[in-house]
Predict the 3D structure of the following.
Amino acid sequence: MEDLFIAATQYTPHIAMRATGVVDISGKSYPENTFDFYKPVMLWLKNYLTSSQSNKQLKINFEIVYFNSSSSKMFFDFFDLLDEYNDRFNIVIEWRYDEENDIANESGEDFVADFPKLNIALKAF
Amino acid sequence: MGADTIRKLTEEDGVVFLIYASFLTQMLISSIADVIEKEAEARGLESTGLNGVYTVLIELAQNMMNYAKSKDQAARTDGLIWVGRDPQNDHYYVQSRNLVDLQDRQKIEPKLNEILSMDSETLKARYRELRRNGLYAHEHGGGIGFYEIAKRAQSISCQFVAIGNDKFYFDFKATIAVKK
């Protein structure tokens, strides 16, 4: 299992997905083609969750300043995949947001409501 | 039209920026998003003070860009998009115009009518429902983006102006409150 690193741009987030089970996604997300941009991310996650070598732990840190509606759909699919494997893994998700950013706050609350079985902690800073 | 005429017109309407784009590109959208950040800074607002404007602008501009791409390889947007500030009511507005055909009008219009009939709680619930069931997920422009825009706007309005041959100008306006 290899690490996946994608550098941030003006409109795509910094992504670090480590084989140790620590994932960081931070920055802005409004790619030109959201599906293509997140394809390797979804693939890495699927591989990690189905790999016999993974340590059955996942710590995911989201710190998204802004994301468009198609990224929102992609994050939903990301959470949906985690939800599917939640019984077999120890998954902890931290959704960090600027306390002034009510859109990021509301989005986090929506994900908590949509995925009640996932351990999602909302953290304002 | 001379520069003075354009300046007079834009000053009257409090226009922050105005773009006519034959080709609306991702880099251009990113640059105009930066202008909104600078506007917030210049007005001494929190960095998140114009988040609503930022959201509406990007959704609308990406809708227009993706719609154009789905129509032909040259991807001409022929779009007009502008952001202005109404100092009296202390709100911003984002307006756009682009060309759509009859088939697309028939796809967009029912969605907008549905949105216009909803209060904010119903709208939020509908957005989450659409996101969950993946409906509109792979449309080129005008997917759940209009629902997101409506969530962030105080009001939205739109019209289709017939220009012949089953073609229409799609005019859209969203007004957004300033968060202080």
Summary: Strands of chain A lie at 4-6, 14-17, 22-29, 57-67, 90-97, 120-124. The first helix of chain A runs from residue 34 to 50. Chain A has three helices and six strands. The two ends of chain A are 33 Å apart (CA to CA).
